């Protein structure tokens, strides 16, 4: 099975020049805590609710701060044509729970989460990935 078969395709995207308040509001309304950051159709970073709290607010930044000031870059990604185990390995190695999915032209086409994968791969592999991701640094 390929990543394209399990990824979420309906993905909202932030721009580096969006404010954290705007993006946090979109996260609250949509009930999600992760958003890819793109310039045009090129992925330049990711932003999580934790990034907003730890990289921005905890350091004195406010809602008017820009996404570019709190986003994670560079980004670990996976190709939509990759096997599911490739995503699990990337998540485990990078200790991340969500991966932006790119097509062969490096355009963002979706996001795959550990939850998306856990229902499709052997329980053993998902459990090992979660253990790696959750391990204290």
TrEMBL record:
Coiled coil: none annotated. SUPFAM superfamilies: CBS-domain pair. The keyword Mitochondrion does not apply. Residues 7-65, 71-130 form the CBS domain. InterPro entries: CBS_dom, CBS_dom_sf, Diverse_CBS-Domain. Keywords: CBS domain. This is CBS domain-containing protein. It comes from Brevundimonas variabilis.
């Amino acid at each position: 099975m390929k990543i394209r078969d399990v990824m979420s395709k309906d993905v909202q995207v932030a721009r580096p020049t969006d404010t954290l308040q705007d993006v946090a509001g979109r996260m609250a309304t949509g009930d999600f805590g992760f958003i890819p950051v793109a310039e045009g159709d090129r992925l330049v970073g990711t932003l999580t609710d934790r990034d907003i709290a730890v990289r921005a607010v905890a350091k004195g930044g406010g809602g008017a701060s820009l996404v570019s000031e709190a986003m994670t870059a560079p980004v670990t990604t996976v190709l939509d044509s990759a096997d599911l185990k490739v995503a699990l390995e990337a998540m485990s190695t990078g200790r991340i729970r969500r991966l932006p999915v790119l097509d062969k032209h490096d355009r963002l086409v979706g996001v795959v989460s550990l939850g998306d994968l856990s229902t499709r791969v052997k329980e053993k592999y998902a459990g090992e990935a979660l253990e790696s991701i959750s391990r204290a640094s």
